[in-house]
């Protein structure tokens, strides 16, 4: 029953978008100003308050996994961290003690700069405004950990990001990830709905693609070891319920 409801809702969304909302859709495609204002509204006023608190347990569990992998770490030595797509800094509260962070985002992370002051256990090394596919300002082989949460869905090339992540990590470094992904091909009906919604979703949500198999991209990137859990999150809209989380070691 739920599948048919989502199928009908997505069809209605297409019809409305290509008729009543078509001028707005065009503005999202051609105007950076309109897109920025829309994204600020949708993420800060709608998605953030509605879904942000529900992701807290998942983020906490993810960083607990990191702590387990770093159990032999000398805590007197700063942990060099790079977070790509840092956004407002939703992960900062879970960072290990004595973390030294370089924050990367494709736009100046204004909200992050305000929020980071609440977490004195995280020292800020710097902010880099660039895309994760080409982190040319970031030196090679210097980071203990690279963090990515809900970022790889919207990059232009996951493979390019993986190459950059591997480049900036130290030997034995960790890549920590939490991402929404495509349904399995065995769940064909759900996957078809994702495919049906993805073109519109990508326009309304800043190039976010619902139908990416990110787990395969991480596993094929050449890490020495990949721990990846698949999770189905029932409190989310069907479009992005499937998630992966885990840690990859260089």
UniProtKB/TrEMBL annotation:
TM stretches of this protein: 6-30
Keyword Transmembrane helix included in the entry's annotation:
yes
What is the organism of origin for this protein? Parasteatoda tepidariorum
Give the source lineage, highest ranks first. Answer: Eukaryota, Metazoa, Ecdysozoa, Arthropoda, Chelicerata
Q: Report the superkingdom from the record.
A: Eukaryota
Q: Does the keyword Membrane apply?
A: yes
- What SUPFAM superfamilies does the entry give? S-adenosyl-L-methionine-dependent methyltransferases
Which UniProt key words apply to this protein? Membrane, Methyltransferase, Transferase, Transmembrane, Transmembrane helix
Give the molecular function GO annotations: S-adenosylmethionine-dependent methyltransferase activity
GO BP annotations of the record are: methylation
Recorded protein name is Methyltransferase-like protein 7A
Q: Using the record's annotation, list all stretches that form the Methyltransferase type domain.
A: 82-177
Q: Which InterPro entries does this chain map to?
A: Methyltransf_11 (IPR013216), SAM-dependent_MTases_sf (IPR029063), Thiol_S-MT (IPR052356)
Pfam families (UniProt xref): Methyltransf_11 (PF08241)
């Amino acid at each position: 029953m739920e599948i048919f409801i989502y199928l009908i809702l997505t069809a209605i969304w297409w019809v409305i978008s290509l008729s009543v909302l078509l001028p707005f859709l065009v503005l999202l495609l051609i105007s950076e100003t309109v897109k920025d204002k829309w994204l600020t509204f949708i993420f800060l006023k709608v998605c953030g308050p509605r879904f942000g608190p529900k992701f807290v347990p998942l983020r906490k569990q993810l960083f607990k996994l990191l702590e387990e992998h770093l159990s032999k770490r000398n805590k007197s030595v700063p942990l060099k961290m790079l977070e790509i797509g840092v956004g407002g800094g939703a992960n900062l509260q879970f960072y290990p003690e004595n973390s030294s962070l370089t924050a990367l985002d494709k736009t100046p992370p204004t909200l992050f700069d305000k929020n980071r002051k609440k977490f004195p256990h995280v020292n800020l090394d710097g902010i880099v405004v660039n895309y994760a596919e080409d982190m040319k300002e970031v030196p090679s082989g210097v980071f203990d950990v690279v963090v990515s949460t809900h970022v790889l869905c919207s990059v232009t090339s996951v493979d390019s990001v993986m190459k950059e992540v591997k480049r900036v990590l130290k030997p034995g470094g960790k890549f920590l990830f939490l991402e929404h992904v495509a349904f399995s091909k065995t769940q064909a009906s759900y996957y078809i709905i994702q495919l049906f919604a993805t073109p519109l979703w990508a326009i309304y949500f800043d190039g976010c693609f619902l139908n990416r198999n990110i787990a395969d991209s991480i596993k094929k990137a050449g890490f020495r070891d990949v721990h990846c859990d698949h999770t189905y999150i029932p409190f989310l809209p069907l479009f992005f319920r499937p998630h992966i989380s885990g840690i990859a070691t260089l």
